[in-house]
Design brief:
Elements: H1 2-15, H2 29-41, H3 47-60, H4 65-72, H5 78-85, H6 89-100
Helix pairs in contact: 3-4, 4-5
Length: 101
């Protein structure tokens, strides 16, 4: 899957007029994005929470852990299994609501 996607991403970057930075943000742009998300929503976020959410949502929709591994760019199944095996998305959401209320 990555072999197919990589050339497409390179083509997108080459044709978008922004160079290697397809989002038009500087070095600290992602950090600023997460800070703004926390300020706007009150929910602390980081890149790992998005990767974990990505894996949990795909697993909940029935994708295999191998498919999730390839789509998420993990090199082995260990993190995918960690994210998807022990607790369901609904359980995580319920725990989060209890912790933040």
């Amino acid at each position: 899957m990555q072999i197919i996607i990589r050339p497409l991403v390179k083509e997108l970057i080459a044709g978008n007029g922004t160079g290697a930075n397809i989002w038009g943000i500087n070095k600290f742009g992602i950090q600023k994005l997460f800070k703004r998300l926390k300020e706007d929503t009150g929910i602390p976020r980081n890149p790992y929470s998005f990767r974990r959410g990505f894996a949990c949502n795909l697993h909940r929709k029935g994708l295999s852990t191998l498919d999730i591994m390839h789509l998420g760019g993990w090199s082995d199944l260990s993190m995918v299994l960690r994210y998807t095996r022990s607790i369901t998305f609904e359980d995580c959401l319920e725990h989060y609501k209890k912790a933040t209320c």
